[in-house]
Write a structure and sequence with these properties.
Layout lengths: L9 E2 L5 E8 L4 E6 L9 E4 H7 L1 E2 L39 H5 L7 E2 L10 E2 L1 H9 L4 H12 L8 H21 L12 H18 L7 H7 L6 H7 L1 H32 L1
Helix pairs in contact: 4-5, 4-9, 5-6, 5-9, 6-9
Length: 268
């Protein structure tokens, strides 16, 4: 792995500076955030090679990677990008996921409804409309991530943030009910801690990273500056509740898509 100097100032070709939050040397990942671009409020996780290809020490050029010269077009770094597709979460599986994914990008797909006669034609617009019919915004965003999250042409940061905000808001409500505040000496206030935890939970569940990191490693990777024992004793419950909340969103998605499919059948 090429060395990453966390003490120096890193910028892109436009002079936009970033702050490195952590470096995972084992998995060759860099966690950083933008400092002076209000449109990039969310921290990112990218591979070391990609980081070095588009960012450099102030006054220097980005390093070439894979023995190829550095390219100069404006970089596109997707939020929380990993050099691998999303994992297979048992929680984040939709009841009608196969139906939704089958022919999503094709013009027309037929399916057998098992009632005899001609099978109705269902095209990709119908399937997209099924997701559009999920009126709960966090649930709709989660559905979009599940279905299109592995599409490198789609920037799913807005959908990701929608789900994160939902999880964090519920955690804050629960903490108020329990008279739970941030740990003493913690650098994060409760709102920031909830946001960081929500990002960690959604990200780790999407990519199935729970068994890859220890509790201490998860906190470091996610930029959560809390003692791992304190976290396990006082905040692990809220982490588990966020997974329950994700299951609730999946149920909402399933209900909406199931209703839409029934309506399609009735109209034929």
């Amino acid at each position: 792995m090429k060395p990453i100097d966390t003490e120096k100032k890193w910028v892109n070709k436009k002079g936009e500076a970033v702050e490195i939050l952590s470096v995972d040397e084992d998995n060759e990942l860099v966690h950083f955030k933008w400092l002076n671009n209000p449109k990039r409020k969310v921290s990112r996780v990218v591979s070391v090679d990609k980081f070095l290809a588009v960012l450099a020490h102030e006054g220097e050029e980005p390093l070439p990677t894979n023995d190829k010269p550095a390219t100069r077009p404006e970089p596109k770094i997707w939020i929380d990008e990993l050099p691998a597709p999303m994992g297979k979460s048992s929680i984040l599986v939709l009841a009608d996921q196969e139906w939704l994914e089958r022919g999503m990008h094709a013009k027309t797909v037929k399916f057998d409804i098992g009632q005899g006669g001609m099978a109705p034609e269902v095209n990709w617009e119908d399937k997209c409309a099924a997701i559009a019919g999920v009126y709960n915004r966090p649930a709709k965003s989660l559905a979009s991530i599940i279905l299109w999250g592995n599409d490198s042409a789609w920037d799913w940061s807005e959908a990701f943030n929608e789900v994160v905000n939902h999880l964090a808001s519920h955690m804050i409500e629960q903490c108020k009910e329990h008279n739970r505040n941030e740990p003493k000496g913690c650098k994060h206030n409760l709102a920031d801690l909830a946001q960081l935890m929500a990002r960690m939970v959604l990200y780790f569940e999407l990519y199935q990273l729970w068994d890859v990191y220890t509790v201490k490693g998860r906190l470091l990777f996610s930029g959560i500056e809390v003692n791992d024992r304190t976290y396990s004793n006082h905040f692990l419950w809220y982490q588990k509740q966020m997974l329950v909340d994700l299951e609730g969103l999946v149920i909402t998605i399933n209900d909406a898509v199931s209703w839409y499919r029934r309506k399609l059948n009735e109209e034929e």
